[in-house]
Amino acid sequence: MPGKQMLAADYGASSGRVMLGSFDGERISLHEIHRFANEPVILNGKSSSTMYWDFLRLFHELKTGITKAGIMQGRSGADISSIGVDTWGVDYGLLGKDGMLLSNPVHYRDARTEGMLKKAFSRMDRERLYEITGSQFMEINTAFQLMAEQEYRKELLARTEHMLLMPDLFAYFLSGEMASEYTIASTTQMLDAGKKDWSGEVLESLGLPSRILEPVLMPGTRLGSLRNEIREELGAGPMDVIAVAGHDTQSAMAAVPSETDDFLFLSCGTWSLFGTELDVPQIDSRSFACNMTNEGGCGGKTSFLKNIIGLWLIQESRRQWMREGCEYSFGHLESMAGDAEPFAAFVDPDAPEFVPAGNVPQRIREFCRQTGQKVPERVGGVVRCIDESLALKYRMVLDEICACTGRTYQAVHLVGGGAQSALLCQMTANACGIPVIAGPVEATVYGNLAMQLVAAGEVKNLKEVRRIIRNSENMKVYEPQDTEQWQEAYGQYRKFVS
């Protein structure tokens, strides 16, 4: 493979992969090296259970990917110059004095944070907390997880010398260097959105230890080199470890192939992140009322967005049906949904009962039953209910963004795994009343690799990054259809969703 060679390690909430990228000066080509599952592990203790990420296995899979890439490149004679890691947001690992993990990272879906949001507001005024961080209030956010550590694992927190968010944790064990990359730090509800640094006021008010936090580092910065011990273990050559946009949403955001500055994006995977890109954070009474978040982005930009439960509802439903002995492919589920009755019932994807793992189809039926709607009994009806509800929730957030920014938008750029669902893409265009430009599916990987190019001085800025992505991929456009019916459905949907 000609051109500059790089590795992108991309960890989603349900799977991970190591991808090889080749840059020829005009476009990036991708080659999947290694793909693996990312499944949480639940351990039962004396009085409760805890849901963990299997970090040791995930780091082993990363090393396996590096080994496979080295074998491939050894055959071609090309060198891999760098590696970057992106992951989901908010979660972290705690390290002791020896720099080793004190415990496996706890999964954000663990029940330990229940009640922590209310407790936080008893310590710090809700509006003041939003004024500083500009972050959407979600009980899974890092600040509230750390409050739970104080409540349930106080002795562990006392032994902690360093807290590293997930991409920084992987990068540390690769390079030996510690830092807090800016985009992932902005998911914590502990970062001052204006100053782009940790907020002493927030930490002090919530009673969180500032001593365990590392300095904030901008994306596209060289962090260090691959540890000699890892090179020897894997037979790998020298490569730089780059602090890319560590939050997978912001890696995907960097790769949105827009030709204009004013655009909407929908990063659609286990979570759906719907928003726009701004030059500075927007933190005011309107964004506070809409519970919008201001995430740090690449190139000094701010992603003004809302987190929405996304394909998790489909993924977890599919797992339930597998437990019941029915192994449907995602394509088969979409086909059955396409044949199901339209607008039969709706749910709020962000209702608290849909957050934990478990029998999502049954919870959907119960939601519909309690709200006086027709209950979807068949598989296709459940999936169609999910897809239509997601599309209408996207419309709802679109209205909020337009109200907050005072702008109108001509299209939605839908990137990530959801771009593979023609049904969801078409429904989103129908619900929002504007075209959906679908792709790239591998936006997160493209953005990861692009920030490695920025760190190497091969690419100057986001505008150039997005031009390269447009050169590298073909996007599909979905035009709105049946807009009157969808507008009527939106009115019905608003009755069930606040």
TrEMBL record:
CDD domains: ASKHA_NBD_FGGY_RhaB-like (cd07771). Transmembrane segments: none annotated. InterPro entries: ATPase_NBD (IPR043129), FGGY_C (IPR018485), FGGY_N (IPR018484), Rhamnulokinase (IPR013449). Residues 6-253 form the Carbohydrate kinase FGGY N-terminal domain. The keyword Thylakoid does not apply. Residues 265-456 form the Carbohydrate kinase FGGY C-terminal domain. It comes from the Bacteria. The keyword Transferase applies. Keywords: ATP-binding, Disulfide bond, Kinase, Nucleotide-binding, Rhamnose metabolism, Transferase. Belongs to the FGGY kinase family. This is Rhamnulokinase family protein. It comes from Blautia hominis.
